[in-house]
Amino acid sequence: MKIDTPAVRSLAIVAGLLFVFSAPNPVAARKLNQPVATIGSLAPDFTLPDSLGQKHKLSSYLGKKIVVLEWLNYDCPFVGKQYRSKNMQKLQEQYTAKGVVWFSIISSAPGKQGYYKAIEVNKINQEREGHATAILLDPKGIVGRRYDAKTTPDMFVINQKGTLVYAGAIDDKPSTELEDVLTAHNFVREALDDVLADQPLKTPYTKSYGCSVKY
Amino acid sequence: MDAYLLFLALLLPGPPPAYAAGISAPTSHVQAELIAEQESIKPGEIFTVAIYLRMKEGWHTYWRNPGDSGLSTSLQWRLPAGFKAADVDWPYPDRFATPDSASYGYRDDAALLSKLSAPVQLPQGSSVDVSVKVKWLECREICVPGHAELSVRLPVLTSQPRSDPAVTRIFAQARQRIPQALGTGIFKGWSAQAFHNRGKIRLRLTPSPTNELSQADIVAVEFFPYDDGIIANDQPQHAKADGRSLVLDMALSRAPGADKALKLSGVLVFKHRNQAIEISVPIKEPSMRRKLA
Questions:
Q1: Domain A22-212 falls in which CATH fold?
Q2: How far is CA B241 from CA A53, B191, B248, B275, B281, in A?
Q3: Which of A129, A184, B110, B138 gives B106 a disulfide partner, CB atoms 3.0 to 4.6 angstroms apart?
């Protein structure tokens, strides 16, 4: 799906950081009519630890860096396609070299598919030769729900001004077959190239595809 | 492995018509078969085959619109010269919902019916191999891609084909779940309209003068969209009676442009009747005079 108008995607995102952390149930919070973020609006802030134990606060990058959020579940076959073909690592390597901050975020709940302890995440990341800036751990799904991440790999691009400019699929071939990455049109690459060239986005929204996020 | 099985199957003599089933590729959670409704092919005529998927308990495969996650089952036909396959007639789906998302698909079993047309010129007494490559995603809590190369061999006879009694029930049950177009068949005289209404889409269905909707119809009605990005898959739908009509309110998708969507297409399912109507109507802006409460 391709939508060329820079229309608004209203994500069911709770804007208030304090509110979310005080909310007893993130699902309930999402269902309430809290203020929502949209494509074209400031990306909602969060703080999450990475797999090496360092904390990352999104707003500390906003206004300076382009940020990619990649929803990650190593055991989802749609994610597997991207990593086994090395497509994801190449994208990470290519764009972090250009100064982009790339966060892979694991929102699988403990006991669910794709949940790993930090030490295991580091091992898998090493095996896969990942080039993300950091892999953030979101086992309660708070940040996943705040961004309304529905699938792995659901992808988000935030520009230098901190505005959410792309949300959706990694590419236009919803499949689990490795060879499809060769012929797919990569929306994240397109979005990053547009942002780096200071151009309006050709494709600000697509329907993401993949496995459901294992909240 | 699958190619090898297919190769073996092609070498083997054709099975007798009563066992005219395709090769079933054993996968972990879905068993797939290609089955023909009739025991022979008559030149120049249309016949129906089914990709019959049987899911292990707890597993599901996907409808034409998979919803928030998942992947639609896809078919790639390999037909002899002159044969043509129509698009799949999809039975209406079930909803698979979590607190965060919803997808559309099939549990237990599903027969995806496809009409094939045979060319006029086929030698009497010959036989024909119809083959299809099927790809699906099978999910329970986790998802696994599956695929199978299926084939069925049918003799060519100029006599009227006999239907295969072994598969009658599968075809009948699938047809029951295939949506019927609004205004035709049992839904002759029925009409539908859709409106944008304060962040929701309202579908109004009015039965023909000789039909009535029961409370049970209204309690167990559900709409499944063909297109993504118009209604929110993961939000509840609210149905109520309004005179002789049914009104169904559905939350808008959070996708951009949903509030300006021009057309609503999909399947309205009356669960307790095991019937479905195919809907394709323009979505109108509500008129100023008529307040939609």
A1: Glutaredoxin (3.40.30)
A2: 56, 15, 9, 19, 20
A3: B110
